[in-house]
Design a protein that fits this description.
Leucine-rich repeat, LRR (right-handed beta-alpha superhelix); 19 helices; innate immunity; alpha/beta; 28-stranded mixed sheet; five-stranded parallel sheet; 44 strands
Length: about 1000
């Protein structure tokens, strides 16, 4: 495989196209006629030169580019969008403009750079130019002289408080006057002191927020007859609580001329938040007949909210934000709103946070009851303590009512208290100071265009919403929730509810589908909890650990058995470590979130192995952060086979039983990140056929099988980032079907960038698989000289001359030279070579030692006390060497047959060794320890020293001396002198042939002359 890839590289290096070169450096996405090249966040210092010629969108944001050259962009005639945000660009070369050849360029983004002036000689067809967060001090008319078709200009944050600009952004009069197609102009955070003059009539959106404009004159917007969006927020903020750099602009706040908006008949959205306004002039809205969104938060308009007549001028406004207009911190006993709210017939959402009142009665909201379109009422952060919910039935179509971050308890308003409170309805309370914890939230207008940002989409989708989160409710009193029968989503999170639920608390919410009780102190010991909610689908019980921490209580989750409609259950962060009934039952539950508990303690005590077994419809299960160093096999076996998503992140797992995947035939996503895994199964295809996502990030995996994904058809995403991988093979990620794997993550692995990685690099270059952050985070760790560099920047040409290539070169060259030499010699020196060969052959034969002095071919040493060894020698070895060998003149010397009776054993042994050509030792386990064996070995060595002849032949009848260094050394030096009786009968004939050759072949010892004289005396 390596050779094939090497040859493929050699054949394609010279023919590689620009697209292939860019593929690994930037991601290329083609859709119909659009080609998007993403080179963002790759630490590039220059624009890549080899970009696809047909690229239409080029993203170069988040790099280190300081200079934009024209050369890389010359051939990009189809380019329409280029994003150069977040670089270090300081200037352009006006002699050779970089975008001169990009005639079709429509969008040019230069945010977060270091430009000191607007670039010149831009393409004439440019429609969108963004230069936000640069260092531009001034803007002149000639900066946009050739951009007659420009539609959007963004110059935000060029002269803000932290910039190098000493004052405000200087805008020359008439700078934008000739831009007749300009529709969007953003000049946010530039410390402008006045509205730019002579703006084009085509303008539809104008953003001037967070400047220092103190006056809005009559003529500032007189020519903007097409304007639909105007943002003047934050020009005169209330500095003591402003979450941004602030400079007061006077005691009266922003001064707006009564006729300032008279010509804005098309205006749909007006933002005047954070301007310290104390009054609202009705004349502002006289001609704003299409106004739909009005934002007036963070002003001093509490009096206008109570009595203001300007509301009568807003019949078409759909969303109004009057939050945080009580910046003087006065606490009112009751809510008092203007009767003119009743004239806002199109109102859909009213945001009234930060009014600060303690009690809310039905009469307080009377001006709103006839608003048929009102669906969202936001009254959060008001320090409300008591409320009467009877007013809910008086609204036509109120679907979202939020009282988040108040001080509601379980106290009810009594008729007596209602009468008393009426007396103090007008005017402020004597307690003018709010609690010291008062801090207004960062309140962005764009977050309040309809629903409050804290409302979850799942809650809104359920139906009517009542949000009572972050209050002081400690007891659920059904009497508190009168007229709530139409509520489908109830949020009681972050309260202090600490009662035992018995199935009666929510009986006044018969249509409830979503219930959020997270961050409370609930007791769930009763099986009847929540049974009064027949339509409950989503139940959030996160962060209710107090109940499960108290030792001695009946810890139970048996209530799930009776919730027939429950689909989603959140039980995260409850520290559940034991259950009186260690099992859950549900036929409807589809999603269970069980992270942040202590299943390790439960399963360590051999309890709860079948906790999830009876959740017969469960599809998603999250068991993250449960301290599971290991998971018993019984747990896997009892998981519902309906699971499609299993998450086991951050458990410290040291091993994972991959065979359990066969027990989960429908599993599509498996998440095992942030554990201690160091092993992955050899092949996924044999275990699962449905797995699409496998997350193994943040583990200790150092090696992968070469067949990991072989025959795998379903896997689409594999995450191996933040592991210990040093090298990879091309075959590791080759699946059973082309293009099945779509995304592979390998960031932050300590790769060893040597030629061993060549196969994998070649696979990356020509594979369609997407590798995010390939250049920036898939980097070398070794060798030291390449540390921090992308593996794709390694010089693979060096690997073309590696050991394999040298071996192939040497072998092929030698074969060619040898064939040529033989052919030449055979033609020219045939007789000479024949003569030399015959001479040397005769010389070798003449030097063969005379074997006439030997009486025996071999002396066979074996354990005569071992009947099996004796039988094998006498009936097999003797027959093969004496009767079948063809040399009967010199038989074998056998102890039981040829030793002279009565002669000492040592004499017989010495004579047998001396008169035999070879000494064959038949090695068995019992024979190795005998003294006779040791003496025979010494005598054989004596002949080696005296005569210089190696006569030893070792025959292993049994597997002995497997780790003997002496036997291993002899096998290396004299391989033919060490034989082993084969187990396979088919090899017996080859064994006898080897033994005959070993016995008949002379092996003189090779000693130096000095060594030979020392031992032989000659």
């Amino acid at each position: 495989m390596r050779l094939i890839l090497l040859l493929a590289l050699c054949s394609t290096v010279a023919l590689s196209t620009r697209h292939h070169t860019t593929k690994w450096q930037c991601s290329v996405t083609a859709l119909n006629t659009s080609v998007h090249v993403d080179c963002s966040d790759r630490n590039l210092k220059d624009i890549p030169e080899k970009l696809p010629w047909n690229v239409t969108e080029l993203n170069l944001s988040g790099n280190q580019i300081k200079y934009v050259a024209a050369v890389p962009l010359r051939h990009l005639f189809n380019l329409t969008v280029i994003d150069l945000n977040s670089n270090f660009i300081e200037y352009f070369d006006n002699k050779e403009p970089p975008f001169l050849h990009c005639e079709g360029l429509k969008t040019l983004l230069f945010d977060h750079n270091k430009l000191s002036k607007v670039p010149r000689q831009l393409p004439v067809r440019l429609s969108n130019l963004s230069l936000a967060s640069n260092q531009i001090n001034s803007v002149k008319s000639e900066d946009f002289a050739n951009l007659s078709l420009i539609e959007s200009i963004n110059l935000d944050n060029n002269c803000y408080f932290h910039s190098s600009c000493n004052g405000s952004l200087m805008i020359e009069n008439g700078t934008f006057s000739n831009l007749n197609h300009l529709t969007n102009l953003s000049l946010t955070m530039n410390r402008l002191q006045k509205v730019p003059q002579y703006l084009p009539e085509s303008l539809m959106s104008l953003k001037l927020l967070l400047n220092t404009i103190a006056h809005i004159n009559k003529s500032d917007f007189s020519g903007l007859t097409s304007l639909r969006f105007l943002d003047l927020s934050g020009n005169c903020p209330f500095c003591p609580n402003a979450p941004f750099p602030c400079k007061p602009c006077g005691d009266n706040g922003l001064v707006i001329h009564p006729q300032a908006f008279a010509h804005l008949a098309q205006l749909e959205e007006l933002r005047l938040s954070g301007n310290s306004l104390q009054t609202v002039n009705s004349a502002w809205f006289r001609n704003l007949t299409r106004l739909q969104y009005l934002f007036l938060s963070f002003n001093f308009l509490i009096t206008e909210i109570q009595t203001g007549s300007f509301l009568s001028m807003l019949p078409h406004v759909e969303v109004i934000d009057l939050s945080y207009n009580n910046l003087n911190k006065a606490l009112f006993p009751r809510l008092n709103i203007s009767q003119h709210f009743a004239n806002m017939t199109s109102l859909r959402a009213l945001h009234l946070q930060g009014y600060y009142f303690s009690k809310l009665l039905s009469d307080d909201l009377k001006p709103l009851y006839n608003l048929r379109n009102l669906t969202v009422l936001n009254m959060g952060v008001n320090f409300l303590q008591k409320i009467d919910f009877s007013f809910l039935k008086l609204f036509y179509d109120l679907s979202v009512f939020t009282l988040v971050e108040n001080q509601l308890t379980n106290l009810l308003l009594t008729p007596e208290s209602s009468c008393c409170l009426t007396c103090g309805k007008v005017g402020a309370s004597g307690h003018s100071d709010l609690p010291i914890l008062f801090r207004p939230y960062i309140h962005r207008d764009e977050d309040y265009r309809f629903y409050p940002p804290a409302i979850k989409p799942e809650c809104v989708n359920a139906g009517n919403v009542l949000d009572l989160s972050r209050n002081l409710i400690f007891n659920i009193n059904p009497k508190l929730f009168s007229n709530t029968e139409n509520i489908a989503c109830l949020n009681l999170s972050s309260n202090s509810i600490g009662e035992t639920l018995n199935g009666s608390e929510f009986r006044l919410f018969p249509k409830l589908k979503y219930l959020d009780l997270s961050r409370n102190r609930l007791y769930l010991s009763s099986d009847q909890a929540f049974t009064e909610l027949p339509y409950l689908e989503i139940l959030d019980l996160n962060h209710n650990k107090h109940y499960f921490q108290v030792v001695g209580l009946n810890h139970s989750l048996a209530f799930t058995r009776y919730l027939k409609s429950l689909k989603v259950l959140y039980l995260n962060w409850n520290e559940i470590s034991s259950l009186t009934e260690p099992h859950m039952h549900s036929t409807s539950l589809q999603k269970l979130y069980f992270a942040g508990n202590q299943l390790d303690m439960m399963w360590r005590n051999s309890q709860g192995f079948n906790l999830f077994k009876n959740l017969t419809n469960l599809q998603i299960l999250d068991l993250s952060l449960n301290g599971l160093k290991s998971i018993p096999n019984s747990v896997y076996e009892n998981l519902p086979d309906t699971l499609t998503y299993l998450r086991l992140n951050q458990n410290g797992l040291s091993s994972f039983n991959w065979t359990v995947l066969s027990c989960l035939p429908r599993l599509e996503e498996l998440h095992l990140s942030k554990n201690e895994l160091d092993h992955v199964t050899a092949s996924l295809s044999s275990l699962t056929r449905q797995l699409k996502v496998l997350d193994l990030s943040h583990n200790r995996i150092a090696q992968l099988s070469g067949l990991l994904l072989s025959a795998t058809l379903s896997l689409r995403i594999l995450d191996l980032s933040h592991n210990s991988l040093t090298t990879l093979n091309a075959t590791t990620f080759q699946t059973g079907q082309p293009d099945s794997l779509q995304t592979l993550r390998l960031e932050n692995n300590p790769f060893r960038c040597t030629c061993d990685l060549l196969d994998f690099i070649l696979w990356i270059r020509y594979s369609p698989v997407s590798l995010p952050n390939l250049v920036t985070k898939v980097q070398c760790n070794l060798p030291e000289s390449k540390r921090g560099r992308s593996i794709m920047l390694s010089d693979i040409d060096i690997c073309l001359n590696d050991d394999l290539a040298q071996i192939l070169y040497t072998a092929t060259s030698s074969i060619v030279i040898l064939v040529l030499s033989i052919a030449v010699c055979a033609h020219l020196f045939y007789w000479d070579v024949s003569y030399i060969f015959s001479f040397l052959k005769a010389k070798v034969k003449s030097q063969r030692p005379n074997s006439a002095q030997y009486m025996y071919n071999a002396f066979i040493m074996y354990d005569t006390s071992d009947p099996l060894a004796s039988d094998w020698v006498l009936h097999y070895l003797r027959v093969e060497l004496e009767e079948c060998g063809g040399e009967r003149a010199r038989p074998l010397c056998l102890e039981e047959r040829d030793w002279i009776p009565g002669m000492p054993v040592l004499d017989n042994l010495s004579q047998s060794v001396r008169l035999s050509r070879k000494t064959v030792f038949v090695l068995t386990e019992s024979f190795l320890g005998s003294s006779l064996f040791k003496m025979a070995v010494f005598l054989a060595h004596q002949r080696l020293l005296e005569e210089g002849v190696d006569v030893m032949v070792l025959l292993q009848l049994q597997p002995v001396l497997q780790r003997s260094r002496i036997l291993g050394l002899r096998r290396c030096l004299r391989q033919s002198s060490v034989l082993e009786w084969p187990v396979n009968p088919a090899a017996h004939s080859w064994f006898w042939q080897q033994l005959r050759s070993a016995v008949l072949t002379e092996r003189p010892a090779k000693h130096s002359s000095l060594h030979r004289r020392y031992f032989s005396g000659r």
